[in-house]
Amino acid sequence: MIESLFFTVRIKEKMIKFSSLILCALLASSIAKADLLGRIVAIVEDDIVLEQELSAQVESITKNLKANNVMVPPIFILRKQVLERIIIDKLQRQLAEKSGIRVSNEMLRSSTQDIARRNGLTIDEFRKELESQGMSFQQFQEDIKKEIIINQLRAREIGTRIKVADREVSHYLETQGEIGEEKIQFHLGHILISVPEGASSSVIGKAREKANNVRAELLLDGADFQQTAVAYSDGNSALKGGDLGWRTIGEIPTLFVDTVTKMDKGEVAELIRSPSGFHVIKLLDLKGLEKHIVTKTSARHILIKTNELIDDAEAKKRLLALKERIMDGDDFAMLARSNSDDKGSALNGGDLGLVGSGDLVPPFEAAMNQLRINEISDPVQTQFGWHIIQVLKRQEKDDSVEHKKNRVREEIRKRKIEEETELWLRRLRDEAFVDIKQDRL
Fold first, then answer.
1. Which terminus of the chain is more exposed, N or C, with fewer CB under 10 A?
2. pTM for this prediction
3. What does the pLDDT look like over 95-109, one tens digit per residue?
4. For residues 391 and 371, what is the distance between their CA atoms, to the nearest angstrom?
């Protein structure tokens, strides 16, 4: 019995020793793994890239490639490519931080709501959808924040330098002539008031005066273009009523291209000067272009800003009193001049001119669009303060040509930004201090 008990004790001692060995082995393995994940793979200026960060991104990209049935490259190539992307990302965020670029909580919340809305989801639904895909909402917001910061940095470093000249747009239209399957054709009317070669300044002045008078007859008196051309034009098309016929961009004289592509149907352009004299151009019609009709609104307003002395309630009270005075016969413009805190428009009696969609802040535009002609709104709040608004008139404008030009301009701008971004990122990478631990790739 004593021997049996002794034997049991010895077995327990061996088990304890064996368990200790296993525990030590597991602990050593965990330490080794933690040490591996904590290894520095690269130094990027005053930041570092850890193995854990690199491995996590490699794993994520591998999953995406497999999900899209894309062959995964050898691991050493993939790690190198992913590391370069991390380095570029860190360099951009470091520059953004030095430049004072920040993302407010409101901006982050607004961006997240916008993404959820575009996916037809509420914020709560969007959160659940992310979690169902294995992504935390917090991580998603961190990623969005980084993206916003980098976009703001690129907009400042690159976007402000990118310019697209009217000549570039015109050249695109001249050489391409098409966007999609659309082919634009312009029906032009032309009147030439000629100037002799080597003419004196007085002769040139008289020709300019004559051309201005002809243009005024067309604009102010509503004179018939064909009759006016027959009567005054020195051009070859005078006896055809100045009719140049239907022409594509490539067929329009280069001198007229920039002007014609900015014109609306029925518009008479400003005088165009050339060695042969002064040209009066009218866009009689156009075709081959998808119509893009925009509504322009003529509106005026009175603004009361809030401050330490004027709170929201007081601002609304003052505007309601002004509205009542206007309804009783007082002049809106006069009250705007003496009461509006928008000093720019106040000088014009509160007149904002003709405005289109997107020209004004959303709350103001929404209220304005609901008003009938001459109707005055109740007080409307925007980030600038409180307003009362009156709509004077609305008009529809065929904005097809300008709309198409804007599309072309945006295409050119995107191409330029893409090209410049590649160069900028390469310069950023080349000029930075980056130490990659090659033995750890």
1. N
2. 0.49
3. 999 999 988 888 888
4. 7
